[in-house]
Design brief:
CATH architecture of the largest domain: 3-Layer(bba) Sandwich
Number of strands: 14
CATH class of the largest domain: Alpha Beta
Length: about 450
């Protein structure tokens, strides 16, 4: 309990803003040994039993790392996690929010421990294909190669299913590849995992959109089960006056374009923030990703606004431990240079042909007794203009469509998994959903 949590987990700021490499450094064994020794091996490990959607064996993994037994740590991590190289980079670490140590001190560094385990395992050659011992004669089509689809695919394959994954884009990964910036997740890690999955016998059919290149009827007739895992590609728009002006884009248009450019799929980013006054509307992770991408493209200035009130610096009483805390979060991108403002409602876009600014108004929030925002009212005489010549809308995603083509209908062999089933959520929850749905399928018709 005398050991402190490491705060310095990033590469130097002046170095990282000049490239697209991952901003986080890989902590050393010496650092992680000290950090995992902070784990108290609680009798009731809330990190494992309550918080982690995958049910990772966190205390056992920590003990193995502290003992320097990374092979055992990897074996323990592999019990429930099929893609730890992804979650260890982009999961918000729900486990750490429920760490008992976090009640009076700082939580144990669980995510960085997981990252060191999986990267050590790849370096030592322990990560190998795990094809099934025997085939069960059943076949499954997975529609969508994002986290939920990949999780469902690997779960079914290891239970003996013949699995084909259909993806409308040129590469697998979904938002892992096309939404999350390279500075948070190196895309070569997706390619590295793809080789493992293909060696296990999973077949990928890319540039294939269901309803255009492959019919839904064909999938239902050809396969014993169909898993629809197409995510939530429909972003929430901002339908206010002036929305038609040039220079206003949905966040994913910006993020996907940059990722496709870096992957060599296109010759130039379709949206360039160089020299622009950038305004990001939306204060979540997607907005933060727009901030970091704009910085690396050379934006002149970046402002991020949010209609919600500024969260408290410490855990709000509305989300007591072990709940995921409502509190202020500052990302690596925010630390790189960005003005952040809260409680601003966007009223109209201004400009002639192209956006030149946004008229906003301050709002006051009615809070619950615990301090949770409930509803807002406009504050008179607080209107102002925020100048901008490039605006990104990062206000979340709507529940996906597609039900008319492939509705959730287990009686006819169609399941839905991940965000398209439950709404936009975290990658780790999509992975858990894919695994759960695959297990249901196997238990229903796989025997």
């Amino acid at each position: 309990m005398t050991m402190k949590r490491i705060d310095d987990i990033y590469r130097p700021l002046n170095e990282r803003v000049g490239d697209w490499k991952e901003v986080e450094r890989l902590l050393s064994f010496a650092e992680m040994k000290e950090q995992t020794l902070r784990c108290m091996n609680c009798g009731e490990p809330f990190c494992h039993a309550y918080a982690c959607p995958l049910g990772n064996l966190v205390p056992d993994q920590n003990r193995a790392v502290a003992q320097g037994d990374f092979k055992k740590a990897y074996a323990l991590l592999s019990v429930n996690s099929d893609f730890p190289e992804f979650t260890s980079r982009i999961c918000p670490a729900l486990c750490e929010a429920s760490c008992v140590h976090g009640l009076d001190e700082e939580a144990v560094m669980i995510r960085q421990s997981e990252k060191l385990i999986i990267e050590t395992a790849f370096r030592e050659g322990w990560v190998k294909p795990c094809p099934p011992a025997k085939e069960n004669g059943k076949s499954a089509a997975i529609v969508g190669a994002g986290p939920a689809g990949l999780s469902a695919a690997v779960t079914l394959r290891r239970r003996g299913w013949a699995v084909t994954v259909y993806e409308r884009r040129a590469g697998i990964g979904g938002l892992l590849r096309y939404g999350i910036p390279c500075f948070k997740l190196d895309k070569t890690l997706i390619d590295r995992r793809r080789k493992i999955l293909e060696a296990e016998g999973i077949r990928f059919v890319l540039d294939a959109e269901i309803g255009r290149d492959v019919s839904a009827d064909y999938l239902v007739r050809r396969f014993d089960a169909v898993v629809v895992a197409i995510g939530t590609p429909v972003a929430r728009d901002l339908k206010i006056p002036g929305r038609e002006l040039g220079g206003i884009h949905l966040a994913l248009e910006f993020l996907e374009g940059q990722n496709r450019f870096l992957a060599g799929e296109i010759s130039a980013p379709p949206i360039d923030a160089k020299g622009k006054k950038v305004l990001v509307i939306g204060g979540g992770d997607t907005g933060s990703d727009c901030v970091g991408t704009s910085i690396r493209q050379g934006a002149a200035s970046i402002t991020q606004i949010e209609i919600m009130p500024k969260p408290p610096k410490e855990r709000s009483s509305s989300t007591p431990w072990p709940l995921w805390p409502y509190m202020l979060r500052t990302s690596s991108s925010h630390k790189e240079g960005c003005e952040r403002r809260w409680a601003l409602n966007s009223l109209r876009f201004l400009g002639e042909g192209r956006v030149e600014g946004v008229e906003v108004e301050q709002v006051g929030w009615e809070l619950s007794g615990e301090g949770r925002p409930l509803k807002f009212l406009s504050i008179p005489d607080t209107k102002e203009i925020v100048k901008a010549d490039l605006v990104f809308l990062a206000m979340g995603f709507l529940k996906s469509g597609g039900e008319d083509v492939l509705p959730h209908d287990p009686k006819n062999g169609i399941w839905r998994a991940g965000d398209c089933a439950g709404g936009a959520s975290l990658v780790v929850k999509a992975l858990a959903s894919g695994k759960k749905v695959a297990a249901e399928i196997d238990g229903t018709i796989g025997a």
